[in-house]
């Protein structure tokens, strides 16, 4: 398999108006960038917002990161853009938080080792010690941070202090704790959670038990960015699997694991490849 | 295509205990019935309930319907069974209620004409006149029953009076009215509704608009028996389709139509072939 | 539902090189076009080919169709583009050919009436008279063109003579005849067929019977452009449905109808919205 | 999670005739067995064959394995049954063969450790040493058996000699070798292979490259019993995933891994729970 060429990705949002695509693509071309992918979307409401993702080859592009910033900013100002740039050679750093269940972590680590997920994993944090061996197997530092009901805030503060800005985003790979607002606010739109239901159905605890009681004919999983409204953050990816009356709660849990790990991995893949823009508690996934 | 052989179907539920399958199958065999399908299910709770569907050929079976009843009742009594029997040559009579949207009705009528749905359709009732032509095309009597907010109970009473017991079950093929309790109670577990969301998400009005606002990545449809808790009756069938940020509410409606009609048709097929048993607000679908 | 705004779509393919997106988007912007959608793709082979679909609003665009042609051609020449343009207000004309099975036709006509398929249907041609009533119901001229084994070429010639260039493309909605090469060559990449298997499995006649014999656990349907290699033209859309040992050939046919009609409708929708480019017997579907 | 109760499963096939279900269920009941599941199927051809799977609790059942055999054989003789019995407390022994790719093995071992697959794994055999560490991690003996083109028969003979009858079945978890007829014949209907296409499409080598060349819009995987016709044995399970023009061969391989491991695990689960009967190169999966 040949080495992937390095690329640069621009993510842009701004009020819609004619000329944005022309100007951005002209800018890239003027500095010898070859556009590889270009996606755009406009909301169809009164105040139309425009979103764009454009990916171009780094090889041959004549601007350094600093130059790119200083030269693109005037364009951004003209169109009132919010924008960010990322370089594929700077792999994102993903901190993983887990509790006791291993299926999402096993899957993420295996995909990561296979090269499916372009990221670094500086650490795995858990409120249990059970998965330490798994982390070691992949050579990833594992840190045990117990969280107690009565000292939750202090416990979480220690985690945030530890993490600081050593990561680009966090993955809650079935981390069975509700994060405090100060924690969530430290990493806005940068914490990906997997919830084991097709949200907004079955918010909160024990969604498989809820699903069993309701007698649904499909169960699902939802990956979303964490906000301070429980299970109500912007949805990144969802999928379902069929079930029937033969499935008891244990069966739903078993079937659900397959969906959870697949949906979480997909969300992480989308995030690491800069394909997600958040807009009004929704995501645009290019 | 050869003529389908006529069959008899027994649906049974009772407290679980050994010997039920043996006794029921012995009974059928003793009277020359050849068992074609047999399904069973036991709930795995403290008080275990047993459910069974057994279908056997009518040809050669030596008992008349009256004899079947009188001779099977002692077995039913012994095992405290609730049971019912149906004959495939007595096609179920399905009354259909619609409003203005035609996609579910178009699909049901086409499938019915194709022979996919073994039932009679004695009438189509609507609170609008728009779909009268469609009914006529298939030669089905169409009755216009307007329902006004201020006279809802009287209006619905006229419908119930009209229907009486001329049907075995009712299909709400996007009938955009909430039925009064007396109406629902007249046809318990005999009214099939299609709700245009993957319940329990998006109960109530405008589920596609709700789905758009929430930013879900899949939309769905749910066929269920109507109870007096809005959209909370026993679920018969569900399915979903993927969507993304490019889909506005109109797109969700368009995509959703495909799922709605498929899920409703499946639920009707299951009902007409006596494959559904209701248990604690859930369904067992054999 | 508000009236859709009219749009113009450019479809382009050319050898890949930097600057294409910049130049095309500059051109559109220079003439006051507001870009609504833009998709691109490059083949990753030695001789890289670039494909682009760009859709922009017609309102405000300052070039007439003739002007657009003459002013864009120099750009096209410079980049060695193959290109075509289409206007949404000029709905494509789709001639439909059917035999006896009605499920695809019923579905296409219903979707068309609902506004899901932006096209005109100047005629329906059939080698049987069975579906004439259906055509009449939708007010579409129906023509009976019998095709005999011994006079096939002459029979098909009469069809081609009749159609001439009164259509933009043809839909074989389960037209159970293999078209002669001269027929296919008259409408290259403009005849959409639905084959009732997941190609390349089960090429040729009776795919459901073949599927039953092989004992597959899923059946499918494939919409493709017709070429002179039977069932080997560029694939536009495919889908499958699960089946099991309980399904006999009739069941497979019944289940398959649902997939066939959905896949064919999707392919037609993609074609009418200029989303398909053909490349080396494959399709790029934007 | 409570301990699963131990069960006994009977798998039966015989010429169809009335009374089979009655007799088998009577037999089980007469010896105090409580039937938990019962499935049956009849082929609808001239010479009708009947298939049955019946599972009942071992607790309370009054016959020892030897007694069950001797007392059931007269019934089997009367109905000309082929039959076998299995006890859930005797977990099946599954030998696994792999080459270099680890995704199927990783998934099988993880599911096995989670309790999803009720079997023993006495060994893992490979023609490469790459996956030895993975085997050790799960404490499973790993044996390296190189297979050379020029000594294939002798090499495979050594494997068969080694395995002997220490297993109940074999799993080819992407074992990239075509087995010699004598090997296959040693374990008839007891070798499960995963083929990385939706068979019968893309038989043989490099199915993803074949799929890319053909331009299909979905790729799949097929688990089947190995016979001496390459990739033509009885299909146990199949599934697909959508793909499009953006997917190159590497992407198809990546997407396909997800389907392969899921389909193989499902087939193994079905085999270990005695849910599969083979009939005329097809499977009946209860």
Automatic annotation (TrEMBL), chains A, B, C, D:
Its UniProt entry gives the catalysed reaction(s) as: (6R)-10-formyltetrahydrofolate + H2O = (6S)-5,6,7,8-tetrahydrofolate + formate + H(+)
Q: Gene3D superfamilies given for it?
A: 3.30.70.260, Formyl transferase, N-terminal domain
From the UniProt record, give one GO term of the biological process aspect.
Answer: one-carbon metabolic process
Read off the InterPro entries from this record: ACT-like_dom_sf, ACT_dom, Formyl-FH4-Hydrolase_C, Formyl_transf_N, Formyl_transf_N_sf, PurU, PurU_ACT
Q: What class of enzyme is it?
A: hydrolase
Matching entries from PROSITE patterns are given as: ACT
The record's listing under SUPFAM superfamilies reads: ACT-like, Formyltransferase
Q: Which domain of life is it from?
A: Bacteria
Give the keywords, sorted: Hydrolase, One-carbon metabolism, Purine biosynthesis
Against CDD domains, the record matches this protein to: ACT_F4HF-DF (cd04875), FMT_core_Formyl-FH4-Hydrolase_C (cd08648)
Q: In which pathway does it act?
A: Purine metabolism; IMP biosynthesis via de novo pathway; formate from 10-formyl-5,6,7,8-tetrahydrofolate: step 1/1
Is Ribonucleoprotein a UniProt keyword of this protein?
Answer: no
Q: Which GO terms describe its molecular function?
A: formyltetrahydrofolate deformylase activity
Q: Which intervals hold domain ACT?
A: 9-90
List the coiled-coil residues.
none
Q: Name one Pfam family in it.
A: Formyl_trans_N
Q: Where is the active site?
A: 231
Q: EC number(s) in its UniProt entry?
A: 3.5.1.10
PANTHER family reported for this sequence? FORMYLTETRAHYDROFOLATE DEFORMYLASE, FORMYLTETRAHYDROFOLATE DEFORMYLASE 2, MITOCHONDRIAL
Q: Which NCBIfam families match?
A: PRK06027.1 (NF004684), PurU (TIGR00655)
Q: What is this protein called?
A: Formyltetrahydrofolate deformylase
Q: Which organism is it from?
A: Tengunoibacter tsumagoiensis
Its ancestry begins with:
Bacteria, Bacillati, Chloroflexota, Ktedonobacteria, Ktedonobacterales
Q: Identify the gene encoding this protein.
A: purU
């Amino acid at each position: 398999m040949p080495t992937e060429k390095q690329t640069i990705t621009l993510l842009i949002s701004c009020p819609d108006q004619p000329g944005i695509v022309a100007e951005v693509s002209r800018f890239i071309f003027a500095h010898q960038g070859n556009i590889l992918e270009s996606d755009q979307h406009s909301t169809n409401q009164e105040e139309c917002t425009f979103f764009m993702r454009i990916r171009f080859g780094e090889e041959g592009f004549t601007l350094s990161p600093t130059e790119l910033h200083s030269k693109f900013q005037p364009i951004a100002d003209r169109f009132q853009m919010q924008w960010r740039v990322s370089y594929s050679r700077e792999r994102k750093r993903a901190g993983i938080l887990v509790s006791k269940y291993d299926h999402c972590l096993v899957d993420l680590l295996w995909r990561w080792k296979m090269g499916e997920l372009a990221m670094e994993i500086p650490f795995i944090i858990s409120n249990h010690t059970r998965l330490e061996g798994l982390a070691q197997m992949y050579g990833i530092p594992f840190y045990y941070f117990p969280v107690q009901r009565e000292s939750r805030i202090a416990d979480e503060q220690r985690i945030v202090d530890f993490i600081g800005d050593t990561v680009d985003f966090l993955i809650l790979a079935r981390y069975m704790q509700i994060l405090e607002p100060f924690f969530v606010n430290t990493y806005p739109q940068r914490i990906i959670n997997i919830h084991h239901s097709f949200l907004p159905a079955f918010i909160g605890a024990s969604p498989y038990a809820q699903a069993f009681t309701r007698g649904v004919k499909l169960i699902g999983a939802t990956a979303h960015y964490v906000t301070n409204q429980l299970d109500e953050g912007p949805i990144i990816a969802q999928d379902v699997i069929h079930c029937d009356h033969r499935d008891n709660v244990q069966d739903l849990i078993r079937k659900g694991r397959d969906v959870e790990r697949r949906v979480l991995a997909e969300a992480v893949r989308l995030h690491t490849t800069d394909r997600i823009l958040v807009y009004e508690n929704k995501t645009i996934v290019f």
